[in-house]
Design goal:
19 helices, alpha/beta
């Protein structure tokens, strides 16, 4: 049978007017700023003025991703629609997609099949301009930094120690390393420079962790952009850039309201990468969803070793959040890849490969239950190519191993296919009390925090610090950043820092190459493996398949 593409399904949906969605979410129209008929921003005063009790927070995470896909966003949306079908008051909170993956290899981040947020074309393209505002604020700071150097350099900035990069929301490897300021004295100071993708900018991390405009300003002022000749940090506050940066970000900071295909209110806001930054939507979006819904469903990027670890160890720590339950999404296709099958062989039934891949799922589940001490359910996200035998095998195997499991068919059936999962999530929230614990404490040294994540969460035997990283850690501790949480940047394709080690590898050592401070965001970024903050486009970019007809209707966007 021929399946409709995601965009065809989304375009067939009759969307409700955004004021109707606001009304379903219990938002008074005075807090709604419309962007056309189907998108709106929610005024920040709603959070301050609402005296409604916060709802329960449910985190959706996943097994280690493979090119076969797991469908975290699809499951998050389908679960929300499933809860709505059960008569629950639910709001979903998601990240905004970056244009890099949209035009590159991964595709959009608005869900898939019959579990999507709409209008999907808008959400995946410019949406309400938030990412443009973040890029503009990032680049304003870069321009003011270089201008300060040009106009006499009163702060004594060493141009060899400028750490702030410019950014653009596009996969463009050509911009990773550039030399700029050429052309003689009137045109700046020649120096090595580079671009990050906007979602890897520290402004994105700050934006997603800020709780108000005042908090945003405070965080922006602490951003370290360079070091002086005597190795003292130079901040955005010292450059006098904070007021203007905040002016660019003030509207972007308001969370965006949209809807699922089934009319469930959805807040889509912010989007840091999960293998580079902390990988979850804004604190403001999560808190707004909890203020509006009895259940707030949110997701964290990539596998639970990346997105969930950062959601729990960084975001929950900083924002004072405690999740009530966690859903770990798994697909039979991805587990078969972890069991050694090539992507081309995934459509064939193979119980042996499936069994070999299960340890990957078990480690993620064990982390949620035993490291973070939270109630957990596995959602087996069914693909059309999965055979009944494979589905029965994985469910019976999970039950045999004492793993709580539900089948999810939300891609094909929308909320109806998420009802069983929704019932289990309600049960976990109502009946099972977690004892939420971080994987490390604030008091531990930066080295101990990194070791805790590597040994407890990744399952490695230890950490090897490159000499440069050792020096950086020592220096950051001297500068007073030792109590900060760590944001470990590593490959999403393995528990280890080697993307070829699938399944649940053991006895591996993670090598820390480099460490840098995100003083505004309030965490220390730890770089392992070959993590790049500016991706490149693949041989055949998704952009080649995207088109628009004369009526403005977009096609080929997944």
């Amino acid at each position: 049978m021929g399946y409709l593409s995601d965009i065809e399904i989304a375009q067939q949906c009759e969307m409700k007017h955004i004021l109707e969605i606001a009304s379903i979410a219990g938002i008074d129209s005075k807090y709604v700023e419309q962007y056309g008929n189907y998108k709106a921003k929610i005024d920040l005063s709603l959070l301050k003025e609402s005296n409604r009790k916060e709802g329960k927070l449910v985190l959706v995470t996943a097994i280690t991703p493979t090119p076969a896909g797991e469908g975290k966003t699809t499951t998050t949306i389908g679960l929300s629609d499933g809860l709505k079908r059960l008569g629950k008051n639910v709001v979903v909170a998601l990240r905004e997609p970056s244009l890099g993956p949209v035009f590159g290899v991964k595709g959009g981040a608005a869900g898939g099949g019959y579990a999507q947020v709409v209008p999907m074309e808008d959400i995946n393209l410019h949406f309400t301009g938030d990412f443009h505002a973040i890029g503009a604020a990032n680049n304003l700071l870069a321009a003011m930094l270089d201008n300060h150097i040009q106009q006499g350099n009163a702060l004594g900035i060493d141009v060899r120690k400028v750490t702030w990069k410019r950014c653009v929301d596009m996969n463009d490897r050509q911009l990773r390393f550039v030399v700029d300021g050429l052309g003689g004295k009137p045109n700046g100071t020649p120096r090595e420079d580079g671009f990050d993708i906007t979602v890897a900018s520290e402004i994105m991390a700050v934006f997603c962790l800020a709780t108000s405009i005042t908090d945003l300003k405070e965080k922006l002022s602490k951003i370290v952009v360079a070091y002086t000749y005597d190795d003292k940090p130079v901040t955005a506050g010292q450059l006098g850039a904070v007021g203007a940066m905040t002016a660019l970000l003030k509207d972007a900071l308001k969370p965006n309201l949209v809807q699922t295909l089934e009319g469930t209110p959805a807040i889509v806001h912010g989007g840091p990468f999960a293998n580079i930054a902390h990988g979850c939507n804004s604190v403001i979006a999560t808190k707004t969803a909890m203020k509006l819904g009895d259940y707030a469903i949110t997701e964290a990027g990539f596998g639970a070793d990346l997105g969930a670890e950062k959601f729990l160890d960084i975001k929950c720590r900083m924002a004072g959040l405690t999740p009530s339950a966690v859903v770990v999404v798994a697909t039979i296709r991805a587990l078969k890849m972890h069991g050694g099958l090539a992507k081309t062989e995934l459509s064939n039934e193979n119980l042996e490969a499936l069994e070999k891949g299960i340890p990957n799922l078990l480690r993620h589940v064990s982390n949620i239950k035993n490291v973070y001490k939270l109630p957990c359910v596995v959602a087996v996200n069914r693909f059309p190519t999965d055979t009944d035998k494979e589905v029965e095998f994985i469910i019976s195997k999970c039950k045999e191993l004492g793993v709580n499991v539900c089948l999810s068919t939300v891609w094909a059936e929308g909320g109806k296919g998420g009802e069983e999962l929704a019932k289990e999530v309600v049960r976990l929230c109502e009946e099972e009390k977690g004892d939420f614990t971080f994987s490390y404490s604030d008091e531990m040294s930066l080295e101990e925090k990194i070791e805790a994540v590597v040994t407890k969460v990744y399952g490695g035997k230890g950490v090897s610090f490159a000499p440069a990283a050792k020096n950086q850690l020592k220096r950051l501790t001297e500068l007073g950043f030792g109590s900060y949480p760590v944001c470990i940047a590593k490959t999403q394709y393995s528990f280890s820092d080697d993307p070829t080690k699938l399944g649940a590898p053991e006895d591996f050592t993670v090598t820390v190459r480099n460490v840098k401070i995100s003083a505004g965001a309030g965490f220390v970024v730890v770089l392992t493996g070959d993590i790049m903050t500016m991706p490149g486009l693949p041989k055949k970019p998704a952009a080649e398949s995207i088109d628009v007809d004369e009526n403005g209707k977009i096609s080929g966007l997944f």
